[in-house]
Amino acid sequence: MEEGTFRDRIAVNRRNSLLLISGFLGFVIVFGYVIGYAWLGDPTRALFGLVLAFVVGTVSGLVAYYGGDRMVLAASRAIEITHDDAPVLFNVVEEMAIAGGLPMPKVYVIEDSAPNAFATGRDPDHASVAVTSGLLQKLNRDELQGVIAHEMSHVGNYDIRYAMLVGILVGTTVLISDFFLRGLWWGGGRGRQREGGGQIQLIMILVAVVFAVLAPLFARLLQLSISRQREYLADATAVQLTRNPRGLADALQKISGDQEVLEVANRATAHLYIVNPIKKFEKRAKGLFSTHPPIEERIQILRSLETGGIPETVG
Amino acid sequence: MGTVLLILLVVIIAVLVVYAVVTYNGLVRQRNEVEEAYRQIDVQLKRRYDLIPNLLEGVKKYFRQEQEVLGEITRARSQAMQPQSPKEQAQSEARLSGAIGNLFAVAENYPELRSDRVLLDFQEELSSTENKISFARQHYNDSVSSYNTHIQSFPAVIFARVLGFAEKEYFEAVGPERESVTVSYD
Lengths: 315, 186
Known about the structure:
- The structure holds two protein chains of two kinds.
- Chain A is of the alpha+beta class.
- Chain A folds into two domains: about 5-75 and about 160-225, no CATH class; about 85-160 and about 225-310, Zincin-like, CATH 3.30.2010.10.
- Chain A has eleven helices and four strands.
- Chain A has helices at about 5-40, 45-75, 85-100, 135-140, 140-155, 160-185, 190, 200-240, 245-255, 280-285, 295-310; strands at about 80, 105-110, 115-120, 125-130.
- In chain A, strands 1-2-4-3 form a four-stranded mixed beta sheet, sandwiched between helices.
- In chain A, helix 1 packs antiparallel against helix 8 (about 200-240), helix 3 (about 85-100) packs across helix 5 and helix 5 crosses helix 9 (about 245-255).
- The longest helix of chain A has about 45 residues, at about 200-240.
- The two termini of chain A are about 15 Å apart.
- Mean pLDDT of chain A is about 85; it is low at about 310-315.
- Chain B is mainly α.
- In chain B, helix 1 packs antiparallel against helix 2 (about 65-80).
- The longest helix of chain B has about 60 residues, at about 1-60.
- Chain B is rod-shaped.
- The model of chain B is unreliable at about 175-185 (pLDDT under 50).
């Protein structure tokens, strides 16, 4: 394993995770203050909104960090398995954990015929790998090993932490904004009827609306921007673990060629998967708006490793 | 003028000290990783010793005609478990892997067993055990490789040896190259 790049990757992911939580907290606090102002009509009483928002933001940040993996797994209807439930899968995960020098993650299966997989968790000691039952049926052992190696690479370089936080916090931002916009629609009149404040209050409402509309868009862009480079890197590290580029290449081909749709994947979790589960989206939007690099390109790179021989670190 | 120079000197020394500390800690971390990777090989080898009797017990009845092959696995296992020099150890591990490979080879002679659940599970467990050992060795060699590269590169090369960071040896396969065991699950 190329020590330098790998360490850099971990550092980048830790830093981005911290920035993301700070950014989220900042957004919630400012939003809380603006709403507080708009609602209660003066700057001092608006501090109540700020404090409330700070508490809500901190709690959801902590929940996302410590419980995000369980939320993602529950939302994907993943069920934890032991060795005897799926011996081949469990063994392959164990083998790849050993190859990467990582602790054994928890293993989950999603009952769905569409083949796909993801990993999540806050660090390698608290990591989970989930695969669909369709993946187990459709891939042979070498291909499964390639997919699991790819997921263990995400685990090892802390991609899982950042991706998990993005998933949860993007979802929360959308939720908060949505909540506010609906609240404004149904009961927003109450504050405006108060005396005083007047114009500033109205401006604040406008600012809050702009926030509520822009924040989810921005959050979504953030989600879209993260995963392209990571997928190439995880593919490369996976090959270093398995020493077998063909397994992963064949797996990607099978997964991308499959016509089934993964029911449990949604916009908050799509970026976690090894191959984008939202197929229509991938076709519709290439380039900037894709969470995953074109699958053909990934397969092509792996195929070139296959024919050119693997650059082994040890002879 | 004198103070400026002094400050400059202090800054340079401070930077060098910080750099040295960071490099030193990095070397310690990598050395620990190498040692941990080495222990992991032992863990996997021990796991294989523990697994073999159980696994063989489960499939004995399928291989009544192959007492010699089964006996060789048992003997190779007991030999490998004896305390011995690292070189002998490596040889007896290779013998054990060879004996297990032989069992897979003779299993091919029984096409009727190919769909037997118990036997497929047995093959999966045994080949996975072999995989785990070789992946543990691969990880050890990977760790050694990046550790050695680090202590051979500038600037670590200046003080690594003085501080007792010696290059580690790679694990090398002993005896005939083990045939890779392939099990089909289609």
